[in-house]
């Protein structure tokens, strides 16, 4: 009989053709292993595994991984090589990233048949993500049917939005019948980063108002008042809001009707245009901010315009959320672009000195590291960079929930 409860959590993020995973020990929040199985179903599938606890080198192997079941078995084999197999009594739970939880799931949830049915019912509003999430869950449950499986929803953090922020101004009956409302995404990132920002300021989350800018290939903003989200830029789907790598973000919905009537495009063609051929890649052909900045330095006007449009939208959301919050203690940048692109951070707050926003050139130029302030000493509003850690957030929420049930 075990004298101490198990403390390890396996975090799974199952995409349509990939599975990302991390194994963490929640006694000290250490990472034991991490890996990725990508191009599932293709002959060129890749399994990449890093044994973080031992400091060993990353192992890679190629060859077709036929489905998600085979992907999770490949993951289990790699973990077993390091003595961290799924049969370990140290494993407390498996935490799953689930993109869409609708209005119903407002917190991490132990998965049962009822939860699975509801996540499946939400597929029409998350057709690219929820099916893959379900496949990963069901496969993991088959591998360890005795182990608690926990769903952590991307949308959960945003369920605290008031109806005035969450509802669209369309016929209420139609909206309710088809579950049309603003749900928001990247919720685990916004939750983690807003909390870490409060810690950086030496305050409790309940004491601070924060604008979080999650800027990656997908990008979203949130207004967080006292630890609770009151507004966010993504809506029914991740298409709304900021200019992104391949997504358009905000635009007049009549553009869709125009493309149908005048351009002769189908709904599927427009969907592909707005989600995969728009944003930065649609404006200048590149969705890598490093490449766009390189082209700007060489005098490329198209790249410069794309950057200016990106920044213009970002400024609008900073200003809008400043108005929503009334008082702002910090504006924080996170995710791939937010954490690494100093020119984006500088441009986003340039001209907003009247709102108390500014960056210090020297601080802003520092690369890497943990959470840090990049605003001048004594600034009225802190500007910060806080690396996101969605896997840690999922592990923490999973372990806290499993502890309640033990």
From TrEMBL:
Mg(2+) binds at residues 13, 390. One of its GO terms (cellular component) is cytoplasm. Pathway: Metabolic intermediate biosynthesis; acetyl-CoA biosynthesis; acetyl-CoA from acetate: step 1/2. The active site is at residue 154. The keyword Magnesium applies. HAMAP family: Acetate_kinase (MF_00020). This is Acetate kinase. It comes from Streptomyces caelestis. The lineage of its organism: Bacteria, Bacillati, Actinomycetota, Actinomycetes, Kitasatosporales. The gene is ackA.
